[in-house]
Structures are given as C-alpha cells and as structure tokens.
Amino acid sequence: MENNEQLTELLALDLGISITNRRPYAKEVFKWQDMDLLPHSSTDTLLCEIYEWNGRNWRTTNNNLIGYLFTGDQLNIIKNQLINVQKYPALIPDFEFTKESMIEYGLSLPSLFNIGVNGDIKNAKDFSVRVNGVTKSRITNIDSPGIEILRSFSEFTQNESKAYRKNIKFNFLSTSLFYAESVEINLEKDAEVNLDVSFQTQNVEVQANVDTDTKKNFVLKYTGNQAPFAAKFTKGKDFDIF
Which DSSP string corresponds to 136-153? Predict the structure, then answer.
C-alpha cells in the first residue's frame, strides 16, 4: 500500500498544487476524490441512500434506493448485504480540517465524528480535526449486492418510470461511503474563552494527550460498527453507468 507521503505527492501532482511540511487539507482531498461531507451520519447510514442537493447543501430524503426496488424477504437480504459491504483502504492520505474549513462546514462537521462542540469555534486560537486511516465501501456492478441492485434498477426505470422520475432520476445516491479509523482533535484557546469539546464514548477509544484550560489534544479511535463521514454521490440518472 502506498504511504501517506506517496499519496500526498500523487494528490499534489494531480491537482497541480504544492504541499510541503503539512497534511493535505480536507478540501484538497475531497476535490481529488470527488467526495462530499454527509449532512448527517449514524451507524445505520447505508450505501444507496437518496439525497437532494439544493445548490449549497446535501439533504437526505430519508429514503434508500433498495426500498423502491425490493420487498419482503428480498429487501431484508439486500439490506443485510449493504450493511456488510466490506470496507477497503481508500488510498488517500491522512488529512486535516483546519479551523477555517470547520467554520465553513459548520457545526455539523464535528458531529460526523461523534465530537460535540460547546461554544463558538470562531473564538478558538486554533482548532483542527485530523482524519487518519480512511476506509471506503462502495457499490460495484461485479459484486453483490451491486449486481442485484443494478439489475433491479434497470427494470425499475422502465416499469416504474413515474416513481423513478419523481424520486430518483434527479436526486443523488451515495455510491461510496468513507470512514475514519481515528481522528485527532487539537484545540487552543484563551483561558477565559468558553469553548470545549466532548465525545460520545460508545465504540470510541479516547486518548487524552493534552487537556488543560488553554490546550487540548485528543485522539479518538473508532471500533465496531462505524458511522461514515463522507460519500461519493451519483445522480440517479447516471447510477447504472460505471
């Protein structure tokens, strides 16, 4: 497997930028991989969830493609296959959300990593989230359940054209999901500034390297069933083209 240095060099070459003595920024990685932050996430977030794009933000429709394609026992079988789609190394370098990018993305960003923020990020001297060990699950046309989903999707577009146009054609499907093995939080602030971080500890191992009134550094390592933080979205009308 390529290491972080090699992957960073490849990213910089492909994007035509210079990266020296720093991690790639989230925006650079997202552009390189054609991925976006999820608007929310939980451990039951699945591939093929249907999202809307309003020109600025993603919003889930709370529907999944397989709910339109399958029923009964077959639906349960496909759902369980989606839950158990294997994750592989995403082959992207470890990267960083800076304070500026966190402000731009908003408070939804920390929550994607089970991080609670109490206070205004803008009041921090420095605040960053470093993302490590990214893995990826995806739908393909050569593995189950992708084979069955794509076959049924083709039939659905022809036999249920009205429902297809209304619910799927112009919306987006999550065709890849991205997960973090661990994240590192670095917070620096003045002592009088009311700003703190908290964590959901279920399936999270927390290592506190620094924890004072003015500086905090925590490493969160995720175990068990993880929640994805980002996705690759494919427009419904392009879903059957890989």
Answer: EEE--SSSTTHHHHHHHH
d(CA 31, CA 36): 8
- Please answer whether residues 182 and 133 qualify as being in contact, where contact means their C-beta atoms are separated by less than 8 angstroms: yes
Q: At what angle do helices 4-15 and 26-33 cross, to 10 degrees?
A: 70
Residue with tokens 């992708």: 146
Q: Give the C-alpha separation, 190 to 177, whole Å.
A: 37
Q: Tokens 């191992």, residue?
A: 205
Please, what's the b/e burial string for 124-138 (b: 16 or more CB within 10 A of its CB; e: otherwise)? beebbbbbbebbbbb
Tell me the H-state helices in the chain.
4-15, 26-33, 65-69, 72-83, 99-105, 108-112, 146-159, 161-164
- Under 8 Å between Cβ of 127 and 188: yes
* Distance, CA of 179 to CA of 181 (rounded, Å): 7
- Phi/psi at 210 (5° precision): -140, 135
For 240, other C-beta atoms within 10 Å of its C-beta total 14
pLDDT in tens, 173-232: 999 999 999 999 999 999 999 988 888 777 889 899 999 999 999 999 998 888 999 999
Best CA proximity match to 37, nearest among 99, 101, 92: 101
Q: Which residues contact 91 (CB under 8 A, 6 or more apart)?
A: 1, 2, 7
* Cβ neighbours of 182 (radius 10 Å): 18
- The pTM (predicted TM-score) of the whole model is 0.93
Query: What is residue 95's three-state secondary structure?
Result: strand
